[in-house]
Amino acid sequence: MTDAEWDRLRPFLPVSNGRCGRWRDHRQVIDGILHRVRTGVQWRDLPERFGPWKTAYERHRLRSAEGTRERLLQQVQAAADAAGEIDWDIAADSTVVRAHQHAAGARTEPPPAPASKGAEVVEHRCETSWRSLLARLVEVVQEVRACAARAPGSPANST
After folding, report:
1. Which one, 33, 53, 68, 97, has least CB within 10 Å?
2. Please, what's the largest Cα pairwise distance for the chain?
3. Cα–Cα distance measured from residue 12 to residue 74, given in angstroms and rounded to the nearest whole number
4. Is residue 62 part of a domain?
5. How many domains does the chain have?
6. Which chain positions lie within coiled-coil regions (predicted)?
7. Can you list the alpha helix ranges (DSSP code H) found in the chain?
8. How far apart are the C-alpha atoms of 24 and 149, rounded to whole Å?
9. Residue 60 domain-assigned?
10. Cα pseudo-dihedral 20, 25, 31, 35, rounded to 10
11. 8 A C-beta contact, residue 10 and residue 29
12. Which residues neighbour 31 within 8 Å (Cβ) at sequence distance 6 or greater?
């Protein structure tokens, strides 16, 4: 954390009341937590320059459970927004927002209406899914043949 970032963050951190002993330096512990978040290292493998790993772990766990992290984030965001330092215009595309795994292959047409009791069902559901699978397989084979027919030096199109 840079000195400018630390100076901005320090006013929002809790102060020791003196009854519970001496606290480890907030900056050292926060740097340890940030190091773990960035690198994904296990708590026990935190470098010694961040102090005891258990201190960083406990402080992170307690502050997360009591909501201090969320309040801290809200306060820092509000201060930065008031100073005009946040650009709230964002753009999201399919590279950022991924569809859920169950969203693939959803129906595009409504399901068929239920047949009356005496009516004969011409097509079963499983036959319909096999037909759509077969149609997709034909499309894939055609795409592969088109790619194979293309000149070796031409760029490939990806879908």
Report:
1. 97
2. 84
3. 10
4. yes
5. 1
6. none
7. 3-9, 26-39, 53-65, 68-82, 125-149
8. 68
9. yes
10. -60
11. no
12. 1, 50
* Calpha distance 119→116 (Å, rounded): 5
Mean per-residue pLDDT for 1-27? 73
pLDDT the model gives residue 145: 81
Asked, for residue 100, whether it belongs to a domain, the answer is: no
Task: Look at residue 16 and tell me if it is in a domain.
Answer: yes
pLDDT band at 12 (very low <50, low <70, confident <90, very high): confident
| Packing angle of the helix pair 53-65, 68-82 (nearest 10 deg) | 80
Give me the domain span that covers residue 11.
Answer: 3-82
Q: What is the pTM of this model?
A: 0.47
Residue type, 70: E
What is the pLDDT averaged over residues 146-154? 67
pLDDT tens for 61-94 read 888 888 877 888 888 888 888 888 887 777 666 6
Torsion over CA: 139, 141, 143, 146 (sign):
negative
Collapsed DSSP state (helix, strand, coil) of residue 5:
helix
